[in-house]
Amino acid sequence: MSAAPVTIIVPVYRGVYDLARCLESIVVHAPRTERAFELVLIDDASPEPAVRTRLEEFTNRDLPFPVTLLRNPENLGFVGTVNRGLRRAAGDVVILNADTAVTNGWLDQLASAASAVPDVATVTPVTSHGSICTLPQSVIDAFALAGPNPQIDECAKFVTASSLRLLPEVITGVGFCMYTTRHALDACGLLDEETFGRGYGEEVDFCLRATRVGLRHLVDDSTFVYHRGGGSFGDEQSEGLARGSRLLDERYPYFRPTNTRERAQDPSRVSFAAMELALHERDPERPHVLHIMHSAPGDTGGTEKFLDALMHALGDEFDFSVFFPVQSGFALQTYWGHADGPAVIQHFLLPGGPRHVTRVDDELAGAALQMALDLFHFDAVHIHNLIGHSLAPLDVLAGFEGPVLCSVHDLFLACPNFSLLYRKLEPCGIPEDLSACDRCLETIAEAPMPGSPMIRNLSRTYLNDFRSTATARIDSVDHWIFASQSVADYFMRVYEPAASRMEIIEHGSVIRLGRRASEPDRALIYDEPLRLAFVGLGWAKKGLDVVNELAEAFRDSTVEIHHFGDLKQAASPELYAHGAYDNEFLPELLHRAGIQIVLLPGAYAETFGIVMSEALASGLPVIGARYGALGERIRAYGVGWTIDPMDPSGIRAVIERLDGARDEVMRTSRQVFEVKLESVADTVYRYAALYRGDRARDHAETSPALDDSTLARVETA
Amino acid sequence: MSATTSPEDETERLRRHLRALSAVNRQLHAQLESGVPRVVDPGRARDDILAGADDGGARMSRLSIRRASSGSEWIEQLQLLAGASDPFLARSPKRGAFLVEGPLRRHVKAGMLFVALERVIGPARVMRDAEIDRFTEGPPVEVLEAASGPAFIIVAGRRLPIRGLPLPHPVTDEERLRFPEGEELRVGTGNAGGGKATGGLRRARALVRREGVVQGGAAVARSGARRLLRSARGTTKTSKTTGAR
C-alpha cells in the first residue's frame, strides 16, 4: 500500500442529483476516515449547467480534505477523463462513478482489504448495482436500494455487521467504485484509452492486464457503496457495451468462458448467503427446540403430521428447527416465529453419509448433529425418530446442556425392523429368545420394509450390538415419551429407563375437532349398505393385503370397502380407492362417501394411532388390532371392535356380523360421541413444560408415572 | 482474525460462516435436483459487460429448456388493457375459446388455462363466430415466465400467478426418440367438450364390453342404483379403481 494519500477520481458528465448525493456522502463520512485522501473531480464538458454550478459550489466549500476540480475543454469520455485523474495521482486510487454514494468507513475498509493479502490490484465493494458485486435481491429489497429512497447507510451498517470478511477473489473488479493499488498502476499503466475510446470494458481490460502480471482482484464483502447505475452515459450505454464486450473477446479469448464459469460459481455466494441469512435472524429471547426426524417435515406419515401440529400449536412461544437425513447428508430446516409475518423457513445441508445410515454408531451422523448444534443455540432437543441417524445422536446429546426428549413414535430403538412384524408377516411382540430373530432379520436384510434402512449385515449380533449401545446411552434422554401405555410396555421389554424419566402423553388429534355432527347419522347406519374405510398409506404394514382380501370377499355383497390415502402397493379392483386426501378434510370426505366404520387392520402394533383419532374426530367407530395402541384405546373407550389382523376370515366374520347388527353399530357410534377428544394443541403444554425444563412441576401435576409393573402386566397378558 | 476482533466475535463469525456454507450447500443440492444452475443476477445482464453484450453469460448458465418464444412483444399491449371493462370468457363453435378484454379477443389455446380462468372470472359465454369476429385479435392468453417467481398469465392488466402447472422435464432428442410416437394428447382442446364419453359412461361401456351385455348390464344397473342412493343422500359418488360392480 502506497504511503501517499489515496486519490478519489470522480468523472462527472450528467446527473446533478446523483452527483450531489455522491459528493455529500464523501463529505459526511470524511471525518471518520483515517486514511488520507484527496478528491479529484473532473468535469467532462458536462452539458448540464447545474452540474457545473454544483461542482463550483462544492469546491468553494471549506472541506476537511483537499479537492481539485478539473475541466475537460471538450468531452473526452469516461476513459480519457479517468486517465487525466490517474496521471495526477501519486498513490492508490479510487475510481468512483458520480452516481454512487459512499458509506461509513468505506475508504479505510477498502484500503485495509487491499493490504490484507499480497499482490492486490483492485478491491471492489459490494453494491446495489454492479455485476458480480451486486447484493442479493432480498437485501436490495430489504433496504429499498432499487427505489427512489434507498436506505444506503442502513444497508452499509447491515453489510458490515453481517459480513464474513472473506474478501472473495474475482477475475476482474467492477468500475463503479474500484480501489486500485499503486503497485497495479505502476505495473499496468493507465486505462487503454486508445482501444476502448469513450468507455465500457476498459476497467476489465485493466484488471486482466494486472492479472497477467500476477496481481489479483478482491471483493470487499464488508463494505457497501451504493450505485444507482444506468445513468452515467445515458443512451450510449448499449452501443458502448456491445463494442467493449467485442473488444474484450478479441483481446482475451479466454475471458468469456472464465467469466461465465465465475458467474455460475459466484465467488461471493457464501458471503451473500450470510447476508441473506442475517436478514432473518432468530429472536434470541425465544426458546429454540431442535427436532430430530427420520424424514422431511411434510412427508406422509403419522410422526410428520404430529410434528407439524406440535410446531403449529407451540409456534407462538417457541422457535423450531428440524434435523433429518437426506440423500446427500443431513438437512436442517428452520421454523422460526416472526412477529411481522409467516415463519422463517431456512434450509441448510450438513455433510453426512447416504440417506440411510446403517451402522450402529455412525461418526458422520454424529458429526452432522454436532454441527447442527454448533450452528444455532438450542434450548432443548426432541428426538422423534433415529432411522437414518444411527445411535450416534444419543452419544452426542449426552453432552447437551438442555433437556433431551425422545418420543417413541415407533420401536426402531427396540429393533431395526421397527414394524415388529416377524419376517414382515406377523407381529413378533419382541421375543426374549433372539434365536427367532435370526430368521426374521435375514429376511429383512435382504428386503427391508418400505421406509426401513437397508442393513446388509443385519443379524442377531447386530441387534445385540444395537441394543447394548442404546442401553449404554439411555440416560442421554431426559424424558422418554410414549403416546400410549402399550408402546411403553413394548419399549420396556428391551430397555429399562428410570421410571422418573418416562411419561405418557397422548398425541391428541392432529386435525381440528368439533366438526362432527351432534350424534350419529341414524339413516346412514340403518338404511344404507355397510361401508368401511381403510384410511392411510396403502401398504402391507398398515394392512392393505388384508383389505384387498376383504374387498374381494365382499365382491358380491352389499358391503363396501373404501380406501382413502396414497397407495404404495397394488389395490384390489374391488376396493373403492379415493386416493390421497388432505387430512384436514378427512371427516367431510368420510361423510360424503357414506362411511360408517373405519377399518384399521394393520398387523403393525400402532404406538398411538393418529388415524384412529381422525376416525373418532369424524364420529366413526374403529375396527383395529387387538394389541398395540389401537386395542388399548378401543377397549379403554369402547369405541370399536378389536380383531386379529392375521385372521382375515375372523375380520370378515366381524364385518358380516356388524352388517346384520346395525343396533350394535349405532350403539358403538354413540359411544364415539361420548369420548372427549383432545387435539394436539390441548396436549402440547406438557411438551412446552419439558422444553422449558420445568419438568418436575409438570410431572407432579399431570403425568401418570410408569413403573416396572407395566412390564409384568404385558408379560402376563 | 483482525487484532480488534474478540475471540467471541470470531467464534460467532465462524458460526455464521458455517451457516452460510450450509445454506449454499443446500442451494447447490437443490440445483442438482432441479437441473437448473443459479445465475448471478441474470436480471441485470442487460447493462453488465461482465455478462457479455449478447447476454451470453446468462444464456450459457441456463439449461435450454424453454420451448416458447419470448412473450415480451405482448407486454406493452397487455399493459394498455389495465382498466379495460370487465373481461369475460367466450366460446364459439368454430373460432374456439377466447378471453374478451375491452375491444380485444384473446385466444385461449390451452384448455386447462380456460378451465382455470373460468373459476376466476366466471363461466364462458357461448357466442356466435360472427360475434367473436367483431372483436380485434389481441395477444393470446399464454403462460409467461420471468427469471423469478411463478409462471403467470396477464388478465385485465393484472398478473395472475399459475400454480400446479405441469412443466416439462427436459430430455435429449436421443432420449425422446427411444420411444415410438403414440396418440396425441390435445390439452389445448380440452375445453371444446362434446363427443367424448364421461368417466362413468366409459367405465360402463368397458364393463359391458368385458363382461357381456347381461352380466355387465346388471353391474351397470347396480352401480346406477347406488349412485341414485348417494344422490338422494346428498353425497358425491366415489370412484372405484376399475369398473363398477
How would you sum up this structure, described in words?
The complex is a heterodimer of chains A (717) and B (245). The longest helix of chain A is centred in the middle third of the chain and has 15 residues, at 237-251. In chain A, the strands form four sheets. In chain A, strands 1, 2, 3, 4, 5, 6, 7, 8 and 9 form a nine-stranded mixed β-sheet that branches. The relative contact order of chain A is 0.07. Chain A has 717 residues and is an alpha/beta fold. Chain A has 28 helices and 26 strands. In chain A, a hairpin with a 2-residue loop joins β11 and β12 (329-338). Chain A folds into three domains: 6-278, Spore Coat Polysaccharide Biosynthesis Protein SpsA, Chain A; 288-504, Rossmann fold; 522-674, Rossmann fold (3-Layer(aba) Sandwich), CATH 3.40.50.2000. By secondary structure, chain B is an alpha/beta fold. Among the domains of chain B are: 77-161, no CATH class; 197-245, no CATH class. Chain B has seven helices and seven strands; from the N terminus they run αααβββαβαβββαα. Chain B has helices at residues 7-34, 56-61, 72-80, 111-121, 129-133, 173-176, 199-233; strands at 88-92, 96-101, 104-107, 125-126, 136-137, 152-155, 158-161. In chain B, a hairpin with a 3-residue loop joins β1 and β2. The radius of gyration of chain B is 27 Å and the shape is elongated. The model of chain B is unreliable at 53-68, 188-202 and 232-245 (pLDDT under 50).
